[in-house]
Amino acid sequence: MLLQELYLANFRNFRELNISFHPKINVLMGENAQGKTNLLESISYLGSGRSFRTRNDTETIFWGKSVCVISGRVLRAGGENRLKIALDSTERVKKYTVDRVLKERHDYTGKLITVLFTPDDLQLVKGGPQNRRKYLDEEVCKVSPLYEAELTRYQHILRQRNQLLRIYSKKQSSRMEIECWDEELSKSAAVILRKRVAAAHRLNLLARLAHRRLTGGGENLEISYFSTVPFVEKNDEKKLAEVILASLASNFAKEVSLGVTLLGPHRDELQMTLNNRDARQYASQGQMRTLVLALKLAELEYIKGETGEFPVLLYDDVFSELDETRRRLLLEAIDGRVQTFITGTEVKNLLDLGRYGDVFRVKRGEVEGVASHGANPGADVAATAGRKKNKRPDAD
Amino acid sequence: MYPGTIARLIEAFLKLPGIGPKTAARLAFFVLKMPREEVAGMARALVEARDKTSYCKLCGNYCEGERCVICRDVRRDQAVVCVVQEARDVLAMEKTREFRGYYHVLGGAISPLDGIGPEQLRVRELLERLGGSQVRELILATNPNVEGEATAHYLAKVIKPLGVRVTRIAHGLPVGADLEYADEVTLSRALEGRREM
Q: Which strand (E) or helix (H) includes residue A46?
């Protein structure tokens, strides 16, 4: 899929912006705090309906304004779509439209799928298990929008059940009261587990392949899903739910004494090993970087496999951290198949990249085209610069 | 902005659910144009409804006096009781004209985070009512959300040992809807509750 045009109004430090992008590589150059990451954020937001930096939507609105709009023209195998998200902080509403038709969130997402790569992604390897669970959940959400609803439901049941476990020792709840949440909890957990295990399996195969290419076959990466649920048949949701229900019952005394639910997807771990050693503990900084890169490349292929199309790659400030070989391998991997947005401050490396696409300069909430190459028909430097001033594509 | 009496009226309307500032102002100005006796009638209706309605001692539905109209109706089937969360759910069920048994209103659903357990609901009343009665079937019609399901599971656990048949209303596809527009969750529930033809 391709993001052909982006229109922003009152988003972060952009008052009004209208740009067309190159189908291959788009380099966003600029000093710090000029709006490069804001631009990536807006693209990710347009696809997922959510910011990757904040849970508080009003933060994304231009200081002193109450309404913000993100809209874009997306080209997919199925045709062209005009996506738009309008945020109104006074009315507290967020409206999603596809081709001017109002949509529910789960109907809206999936039209523009993005994969984000930022310096923070090292936490995927370094950080706690919740980072890796979140990574896995996000991947599944991207390809199956209703998974998110199931996750929310699961968390909700879990909070209710944990509350009862907490007050059990004070004799304010009974075992029967706790058990009446178990059935729904296990059903929901089974749905989540099945999807996660399937995704982890796919990602393992793809990441191993990518990792072997990146390391020249020198290291062996293995990603495995470890569940707190002792399951055998992971494809049968009904059986899985039965196993979870039984395990909840046998763990009751322990759960009551600790006051939390100890079993289920919220306690599972996605373990990553390099040559059979836990990457979280033993991998060096450089090995972690390579591992994350392999995970990201696996993400691209995973989404391609599930939806039939490559997502859009958003690359925040990490290109400069890669050495020559990895840079080359990354470029080979995306090689004209994946539309990529790269931000950075370093002029030389980025301008080199510009040979494959367009280069933009981001300065104080303004974006200006500085160089354009290749496959974009009729897009020379002047035209790129001129496109910025086009009229709004979406005036409603 | 408005004289005191109008401002007070607008504020009164604002207390109603679903009414925002604009609608409240519109309603207030409409009232000013209504004939005096109609306004007085409306005010009386409000106060009277508030004063005279109470909860049925047996089922928890709204009523005037001790028992509600449904519990007073002897032609109904005494063997079946339908459990609902709110009194307004009784109205919804009655609209179907299909159900001829009696009701029991719980007054909510179990939600530990809100401090609502079985003791906060009319569960004890239900158990008392079932003890030694002719009720053979209890239909659980709590909402199909997380709390409603938990409440249904709880009631099933408590009541089944009494020898009463406990059933749960089916959930699935809305009648008249297209299969392709149903969401995954609803569809999988509908599949779960499939029946022989």
A: helix A36-48
Chain A residues whose beta carbon lies within 8 Å of the beta carbon of residue B185: 146, 149-150
Q: Are β-strands A221-226 and A114-117 bridged in parallel, bridged antiparallel, or unpaired?
A: unpaired
Out of A150, A153, A173, whose CB is closest to B117? A173
Q: Which of B111, B153, B185 sits opposite A160 (nearest CB)?
A: B111
CA dihedral A47, A8, A22, A27 (to 10 degrees): -100
Q: Are A326 and A293 in contact (CB under 8 A)?
A: yes
Distance CA B125, CA B60 (A): 9
- On whether the CB atoms of residues A104 and A93 are closer than 8 A, the answer is no
Contacts of A77 (CB under 8 A, 6+ apart): A1, A308, A309
Closest Cα in chain B, distance from residue A192 (Å): 13
pLDDT tens-place values along chain B, 197 residues long: 677 899 999 999 999 998 888 899 999 999 999 999 999 999 999 999 999 888 998 999 998 888 899 999 999 999 999 999 999 999 999 998 889 999 999 999 999 999 999 999 999 999 999 987 889 999 999 999 999 999 999 999 999 999 899 999 988 888 777 887 777 777 877 887 788 88
Question: Is residue A151 scored above 50 in pLDDT?
Answer: yes
- C-alpha closest to that of B10 among B29, B22, B24: B24
SS3 of chain B: the string is CCCHHHHHHHHHHHCCCCCCHHHHHHHHHHHHHCCHHHHHHHHHHHHHHHHHEEECCCCCCEEECCCCHHHHCCCCCCCEEEEECCHHHHHHHHHCCCCCCEEEECCCCCEHHHCECHHHCCHHHHHHHHCCCCCCEEEECCCCCHHHHHHHHHHHHHHHHHCCEEEECCCCCCCCCCHHHCCHHHHHHHHHCCCCC
Structure tokens at B125: 């009343």
Closest residue in A to B111 (Cα–Cα): A160
- A176 and B183 within 8 Å at the Cβ level: the answer is no
Q: What is the pTM of this model?
A: 0.82
Phi, psi of B58 (to 5 degrees): -90, -55
What pLDDT does A215 receive?
87
Distance between CA atoms of A180 and A38, rounded to whole angstroms? 46
Mean pLDDT of A94-119: 91
Decide if A353 contacts A24 (C-beta within 8 A): no
pLDDT tens by residue, A18-76: 999 999 999 998 888 899 999 999 999 999 999 999 888 889 999 989 999 999 999 99
Query: CB within 8 A of A355, min separation 6: which ones?
Result: A373, A374
CA dist., res. A288 & res. A95, Å (int): 39
Cβ-based contacts of B147 with chain A (< 8 Å): 160
Residue among A157, A171, A180 with most chain B CBs within 10 A, to mutate: A180
**Best residue of A160, A171, A192 to probe chain B, by most B CBs closer than 10 Å:** A160
Query: Which tens digit of pLDDT belongs to each residue from A230-264?
Result: 866 667 888 889 999 999 999 999 999 999 999 99
Residue A84, φ and ψ in degrees, nearest 5: -150, 135
The answer, for A153 touching chain B at a CB cutoff of 8 Å, is yes
Asked if B184 is an interface residue toward chain A (Cβ–Cβ < 8 A), one would say: yes
